[in-house]
Amino acid sequence: MNILSDINFTLRTLIKNPRFTALTVFVMTTGLTLCIYMFSFIHGSLVAPLPFEKGERIRSVSTIYNGMQYNGASFRVHDFEDIKKRVQSYEMFDAYTIGTVNLSTSDRAVKYTGHYVQESFFEISEAKPLLGRLITNEDGLSGAEPVTLISHTLWQNMFAGDKDVLGKKLRINTKPTTIVGVMPDSYQFPSAGRIWLPYTTTAKGVARKDGKYVAVYGVLKPGVSDEQANVELRGLMAELEETYPKLNSNTSAHVWTLQAEAMGSGTPTIILAMELAVGFILLLACINVGNLLFSRATEKGKETAIRTALGAPRSRLIMQMMWESTLICTISGVLAVLFAGLWLEIANKDLLSSFPFDAPFWWNIHITQTSIIAAIVITLVTAFITGILPAFKATSGDFNATLRDGTRGAQSKASGRLSKVIVISEVVLSCALLLLSTGMVYSVNQQNNIDYGTSVENIFTARVGLPEAEYKSDEKRLQYYQNLKAALISEPAISAVSFTRTIPGNGASYQNISLDGVDYGKKPQYPSSSSVGVDHNYFSVMTMNLREGRLFDSRDKIGSPLTAVVTDNFVNKFFQDGVALGKRFKFIETDKDWYTVIGVVNDVIHGQPMSFNIEKPTAFISIKQTPKRFMSVVIKTVVSDAKNVPDLAKTVADSIQKIERDAPAYDVKTLRDSITGRNAGMNFVSELFLVFAAASMVLAFSGIYGVMSNTIIQKTQEIGIRRALGADNSDIYKHFIKQGLKQLVIGLCIGVPMGVVLVTMLEESSIAQGSLMLYVGVPTFISLVILLAVYYPVSRALKMEPCAALRHE
Question: For residue 607, what are the CA distances in angstroms to 18, 438, 678?
């Protein structure tokens, strides 16, 4: 009965004070919503478990090449087969290959990313076909009938869910291929798989330098840690580098989860930043609500002292105050789950639609059972933290002293010290969080507005992959590109057409090179450069600047000496005298012949605009000398913004389809959309941190204002006395502002270095960027908040007549 009476009493108290209740619920709901949202987002995407029995032990293996990590098919098959014979950390160590596949039926052609796999691939992913059978190792043997396994999505899109699809033929890269199975909708291993074919890649009969690249994965043995697996693998890679120094120079490997691979190497740092941010916000909310509850308890100080004097046990008084925080946090927790769930639904749609790729199949960005459990735990913990300290503080000490201390509007020394600590804490947390958030937002804004070194807004792009069987010769490939250029340039909305292996903003091939005349010794440590194949008119279409020398022309063709146009970074990094024209280099792995530098152009960013990509040297080579099957079409529009050309995507796709029905266009979009898509993840994180910054300022301002307002209200009589003794308003403003500034300076002295450390930590991963403007602007902004939080309560107190202030209770 006592508990029910206490709950009933607390409810009546909250209802009688709607402003207080609304404020505390708002503050706590804000903190809990962000915390529950971030927990659900991180655990539903970035670190979501794989839904397999051995999912926690499945690992991907990536190569580290010249200090940069490469995912996907990055292992030379010879290296993989050598390591597989000797590796001991895995109970299964295997590989698959990835390739663009063009699917053709009688009425359409589409492009998908295909996975070429073995039986073990389906064993570890616990695959069970919806229709038909899985791919077996026999399907990959020489002379076997070409077969394929399709996803549920592909089955619906291309065959309208026809249950008689088994045995039907698909033209895959012009080759008739039999469908032997359909996978359920939930199966998309290894990430967002849509079509699977037999693995046929081998090192047998293939020169090591000509070996294809495979994606390596495996299942760790029970009890083997990632660190142990990494140590073993790096040792094996070092032995390969010793044995094959020319091909394996500066090459190592790294073991990590499929989840980490899908998100990139900077993910742990981003997760840490997110957790710190929501932790700071929740702590701010707890401090604010705790302070509000303590202020309420202080106002009831006499009532508490009288009840104590009449024999009320301290435990009963504490429980009543604890029920107040519990009810406030419970109401806030329920609202937070509802708001977080709604936010997740909206953010999930926006985020997934902005990505240039399909989300991994293990993503489940919703309020889950785990989220509910976490919300309950977080709510109970915050209820305890916000309630227990004010309750103990309000009921501690001698009740006689309590009756004397604080009467007639004075503030006790203990209360005064606590108020100062709260203000300082608010300043520290808000300063650190604002610096972290604004550093992140500033960095992403800089990346979004960076100069890629080429035209962007008036450029439209599309990707095409020619079937290998039909386009084996260089001459046939070049003829296709000439025909496509002629077809596109005839469109009135198009002013120029060119081709490139890699458009700006997309990652380019990064290879070891050897400079003519440089002796690299027996254990060579070769330098590296990006390699980008381009058409002769690419530089003019993309509005690039020729620094010196010449660009590609009719002299650069099949059979003529190989030539290259390099960037400023290439010259500055490899030629100390600044003279590049006439110098020679070659790509270690792919070319025997030397390339002669004929020109120098401005730098171009390939990949996300991180510092390591901005500083990369690049060598442009002529596609007229080395034409490839996969190429990006670069289209310059007659208008300044390619988005304003109606139906351009359809026009480009139709033109490509007419010339080669088995080579459908894909990634058809403006260059600006392509760049935005590549940066979608960081833009989403930036938007989150904008929310964090706004929430921190709302909580910090409300908290500091509440503390200062309560402090000044308790000193109303002091203000009346000062005015009665002749002090004017400016003296009283100075007195309280001086007190506020002391707390501000202490808070900034702790908060600014803390924020700088956090920003510097993220700068190493190119996730955040500090600047003098931020390090000055954020403290200045917080200082203004403090001044406002002092000014308004003082001005309200000064409106009272001195005689009224002296009688204030």
Answer: 54, 24, 8
Contact 75, 274 (CB under 8 A): no
What are the Cα distances from residue 606, in Å, to 502, 530, 635? 8, 9, 18
Angstrom distance (rounded) from CA 768 to CA 756: 11
| Gap between the Cα atoms of 402 and 397, Å rounded | 7
Q: Identify the DSSP state of 769.
A: -
193 CB-near residues (< 8 Å, 6+ apart): 113, 115, 151, 187, 361
**CA 5 to CA 768: how far, in whole Å?**
53
pTM confidence score: 0.80
User: What is the rounded distance in angstroms from the CA atom of residue 151 to the CA atom of residue 179?
Assistant: 11
Q: How far is CA 406 from CA 313, 420, 696, 717, in A?
A: 22, 17, 32, 11
Give Cβ neighbours of residue 177 (< 8 Å, ≥ 6 apart): 146, 147, 148, 169, 170, 171, 197
What is the DSSP track for 309-370?
HTT--HHHHHHHHHHHHHHHHHHHHHHHHHHHHHHHHHHHHHHHHH-SSPPPTT---S--HH
Range 22-46 burial, b when 16+ CB lie within 10 A, else e: ebbbbbbbbbbbbbbbbbbbbbbbb
Which ranges of 73-149 would DSSP assign to H, the alpha helix?
A: 77-86, 119-124
Pairing of strands 595-601, 563-567: parallel
Measured distance CA(249)–CA(231) in Å, rounded: 18
In 3D, which of 278, 246, 233, 266 has the Cα closest to residue 69?
A: 266
Q: Phi and psi (nearest 5°) for 589? A: -85, -30
Q: How far apart are CA 540 and CA 530, in angstroms?
A: 20
Residue in the structure block whose two tokens are 């359809």: 650
Point out which residues pair with 227 in neighbouring strands.
none
Rounded to 5 degrees, φ, ψ at 700 are -65, -45
* Beta carbons of 50 and 56 less than 8 angstroms apart: yes
Residues of the chain whose pLDDT is less than 70? 1-2, 6, 106-107, 265, 296-315, 352-357, 391-416, 591, 710, 713-714, 802-809
Q: What is the pLDDT of residue 408?
A: 45
Contact indicator for 184, 131 with CB cutoff of 8 Å: no
pLDDT of residue 407: 46
Cα 199 from Cα 138, distance rounded (Å): 10
The Cβ of residue 407 has, within 10 Å, a number of other Cβ atoms equal to: 12
The DSSP bridge partners found for residue 16 are none
Q: What is the DSSP string of 495-550?
A: EEEEEESS-TTSPPEEEEEEETT----SS----EEEEEEE-TTHHHHTTPPEEEE-
Half-sphere CA count of 754, side-chain side, radius 13 A: 21
Three-state DSSP class for residue 71: coil
Q: For Cα atoms 458, 460, 461, give the angle at the middle one, nearest 5 degrees.
A: 150
**DSSP readout, 211-240?**
--EEEEEEEEPTT--HHHHHHHHHHHHHHH
Question: Which residues have C-beta within 8 Å of that of residue 160, sequence separation ≥ 6?
Answer: none
CA atoms of 332 and 371, how far apart (whole Å)? 15
Residue with tokens 């503390």: 707
Radius of gyration of the chain (CA): 33
Q: Which amino acid is at 30?
A: T
